[in-house]
Amino acid sequence: MVTEVVKIKDLKKLAPVFGQLSFENHEQIVFCNDKDTGLKAIISIHNTVLGPALGGTRMWNYSTEWHALNDVLRLSRGMTYKSAITGLNLGGGKAVIIGDAKTQKNPELMLRFGEFVHSLGGRYITAADVGMVTGDMDLIRTVTPYVTGISEEKGGAGNPSPITAYGVFMGMKAASKFKFGSDDLEDKVVYVEGIGNVGEALVEHLCNEGAKIYISDIDQDRLEEVRDKYSATIYDGNNLHAEEMDIYSPCALGATINDVTIDQLKAKVIAGAANNQLADEEKHGLLLREKGIVYAPDFLINAGGIISVYAELENYGKQEIIRKTENIFNTTLEILSNAETNEISTHQAALDIAQAKIDIRKREN
Ligand code: NAD
Question: What is the pLDDT of residues 104-153, one digit of tens each?
Fold first, then answer.
């Protein structure tokens, strides 16, 4: 997890905001505080060259405010590249609310947060991320139009997580085709780390395909629920990353590919939903390449959710959502081949294409 891996002294040693480790020319960072509701949130707008900054809100019990700031900076930057590589006219933004979603979330807090989103006049459009659900978006919608991921009953595209999972499944198939010569996942040993909204939907696809699925989560009830619904095995060891497997699918929080795990990883393919899987994009991207592990870049294959919520802004329907999401298979194959030809990491190959799209638009504007 980001919060565990990044050392607090590293976060503090530079200037508070513009000198942060994860600061990369973000356009605007808004600190939201409300005494009455106890709201403490940060909205980060990384880049708006391609359009308004769209990205989910994460509610998480960060150990320090530095970790929250670091997370939102990294996540919002990731959104810029995700939308760019997916071909959407959106910039990158993200928000974090500091607090425990299970015990501290309430309607007043959500509405106050919605008012802060509204105050940005559409430069930032929110959606759900970890700790938030479709019902929260419906509530926020009552105070601002700058919110997506609204329920179908209220005219939105609904919970984006199943679409995200489908896109991850497409990316996983593409990476498998690249590594194993076939996109058939039957009998492949797949470890899914984090079986929340996306992880569970991914397990369903894997189960239908006949993969040998191992699941892990910090929530024991969820583990039992998902195990009972699908033919999955609960991983009961204490170091998942060191297990023999074909595919590792990080679907919890970021930075699980880091200085500690990278030496242990035995997976042949990495394809998951979590944002910011590489603790250090450059270094760990290259190390994966050296180890011959095919890494399907996170921001490329987890774009199903943003494709789904973008439909609410552009008024396209389910069919187009599915078509765009299935295209993740082709884009992933293209990026993996590109990386091999140019002898660069797959993450870098994806970043380069996304950045080129932003640069072209900037020149046109
Ligand atoms: P979620 O909150 O529904 O699920 C996350 C799950 O991870 C929970 O079950 C939690 O208990 C588990 N978890 C937390 N820490 C863990 C750990 N150390 N080990 C194992 N499990 C752990 O979130 P989600 O919507 O399923 O999203 C999962 C990831 O995918 C997040 O990183 C999110 O940012 C990313 N993502 C989600 C979407 C989407 O549409 N929901 C889109 C793009 C990216």
Answer: 999 999 999 999 999 999 999 999 999 999 999 999 999 999 999 999 99
Distance 15 CA to ligand 1 centre (A): 30
Would you call 78 helix, strand, or coil by DSSP?
helix
Of 227, 185, 234, the C-alpha closest to 210 is 185
CB 275 within 8 A of CB 302: yes
Do the Cβ atoms of 73 and 47 come closer than 8 Å? Answer: no
Confirm or reject: Cβ of 217 under 6 Å from ligand 1: yes
- Expressed in angstroms and rounded, the spacing between residue 40 Cα and the centre of ligand 1 is 21
Cα–Cα distance for residue pair 46/11, rounded to 1 Å? 19
177 as an active site residue: the answer is no
Output the pLDDT for position 11: 63
- Structure tokens given for 136: 């929260």
- What domains can be seen in the chain, in order of their start residue? 25-77+91-154 (3.40.50.10860), 161-357 (3.40.50.720)
Residue pointed to by tokens 């996306």? 198
Strand partners, 57: 95, 128
Q: Does the model's pTM come out above 0.85?
A: yes
